[in-house]
Amino acid sequence: MENSSGIRASLAGRYATALFALATENKAIETVEASLASLGNAMGESDDLKSLISSPVLSRADAGKAIAGIAKEMKLDDLTTNVLGVLAANRRLDQIPAVIRAFSTLASGHRGEITAEVTSAHPLDDAQVDALKAQLKKRVGSDVSVSTSVDPSILGGLVVKIGSQMIDNSIKTRLNTLSQAMKG
Fold it and tell me: Which of 35, 47, 136, 148 is the most buried (most CB within 10 A)?
């Protein structure tokens, strides 16, 4: 867990570290990771869920009831549900995406993997993700866990972040570089 001290420095990282400690103690790392992945996918697909986690007008009690209902409906594990309740009680639901990323990094480190954050213009299929993992494993020399996101503004290509390294092979960056070169 080479990133653990950096993760603990952030607010979301402290929640993720506490959740990871509880998951480790209860031998539920994979279960919690699956619940968080489901929640992350749901946030990507539901504008209502995005609104819930970013709404400053909901009271703590209403936010807690709403997130508990969502957790029950999604059949999230108890540890994840409890942490979501704490986030709601502390008016920190907006930290959920960062908690998910930090927990994923901690879980990957626990398994001896390195986490790569990959941004693409279009969703990657399983075969593309597997090929990317193989290429990244060759580059870094160890197993790589890939966290994907979609950003249509990059137009094409990929942006890969591994720790402090960033490989930006997006069409947007190439066009900007070409534009700058043409200006002189």
Answer: 35
The Cα diameter of the chain in Å comes to 60
CA distance linking residue 31 with residue 24, whole number of Å: 11
For the segment 110-141, what is each residue's pLDDT rounded down to a tens digit? 988 888 889 999 989 999 999 999 999 999 88
pLDDT digits (tens, 9 = 90+) for 89-105: 999 999 999 999 899 88
